[in-house]
Fold:
Amino acid sequence: MTEAPFSFRIDDMLRLTLLAGLCALAVPDSLPAAQAGGQARPPNIIIVCTDDQGYADIGSQGAQGFRTPHLDRLAAEGVRFTDFYVSSPVCSASRAALLTGCYHERVGISGALGPHSTAGLHPEETTIAELCRAQGYATAAVGKWHLGHLPEFLPTNQGFDSYFGLPYSNDMWPQHPGVRHLLPEERLQRWPHLPLIEGTRIIDAEITPQEQEQLTTRYTQKAVGFIRQNRDQPFFLYLAHSQPHVPLFVSANYKGKTERGLYGDVIAEIDWSMGEILKALDTFQISQNTLVLFTSDNGPWLSYGNHGGSAGPLREGKGTCWEGGIRVPFLARWPGRIPAGSVCREPAATIDLLPTIARAIGGTLPKKQLDGKDITPLLTGAPGATSPHAALFFYSGNRELHAVRSGRWKLMLSHSYRLLNGRPGGKGGMPVDYENRAITQPELYDLVADPGETRKCAADHPEVVAALLKKVEAMRVELGDTLTGREGTACRPPGTATR
Structure:
């Protein structure tokens, strides 16, 4: 059911905004603030982001060997996007894009920042948290951060009132299976002890395997506690699970509970966590005024086999710009605003969340250049709504431009990539080695007819290739491409600590 459009004039809306304190303008296809007890209140915002969860790792997109009833409820009560993207198939880069509304190359973040890095998201960049805080929101980050582990880059210096979680991936850890054969001092040279942080203070300097088993539970408790504490005021919650990134850990409540094995158990517990969030919203009677968004930071880590996820019909996975690496689950619910049970097949991306949230809460967009677009019409099912992007671009590696999508077309550019080449992945938490392969000439794919990217069609559509290459060249000028020796004229630096 699509909400009827409003017909107020702009001057009428401005008067209403001043008189009622609205934080969202009631324009056509908008997500207006809910009414509670006759008083206008802007919507709460919740973003749940998992780590390495594949496109097919939710029930509504073909999950096998485990169930996700709470995520399926989210889809049934809201909208499911079939063509939703991250800017990069790697952790730090994709998270920078999600929180800033910019391609990660624009804000200077590439790859996955390690515990020895002195870089982080520049404090002068505007995050969704800062956008919300400027509108009087309470803000909290729970879970994996991975945008700089030094104090000046942690969430409480990036717009969040509070933070609880790990500063980077849970495998950057001296107990990773891949380094257990080394002597303790050699392990620590590669990976220092993994800390648990609250605010900017380390509260547990050496996370153990037993403690990792409890992280999903603890993250969920912190998230629900934040909702409880702030139920009477607008809030923004960013819950970034450390799982199902390897090594996999799950609490005793879910261990051995699914046919899929440990990976399925982990997803089942993440689904439980989503259920606890939804339950809290129902308990405090704020579901109607809360926009809930669910996604993953990139595709599945296929080399880990039974400890990795599934991209379903999509090609390859994490670390590549084939669809399996960059197309991720995306669900959104806001009862009464987003039509229940709807499906959107238009291309959109995590870079679109910041401008879309800005519109929903009446926030002011950053003055610095953004790449994301407002996708409110897609969320609300506005008649005839199409993707606001003329093209989406995908970088990976060391500032390498690997792919571009425009409408139904995707052009894979010349670059090297990794693949399993039909071989199964590893078992028991140990990966198998990838093979390397190179694309030597741009390859065109029709993603509507061929989402699995199995049929090259450049020869049949030379005009499409030419048009896409023009877009690519413009992006190389703007954000660079090390594969062609371009630096980029509009890249901003990351934050760099002087230590």
Remarks:
- DSSP finds twelve helices and 22 strands in the chain.
- The CA atoms of residues 34 and 289 lie 5 Å apart.
- The radius of gyration is 22 Å.
- Residues 262-283 form the longest helix (22 residues).
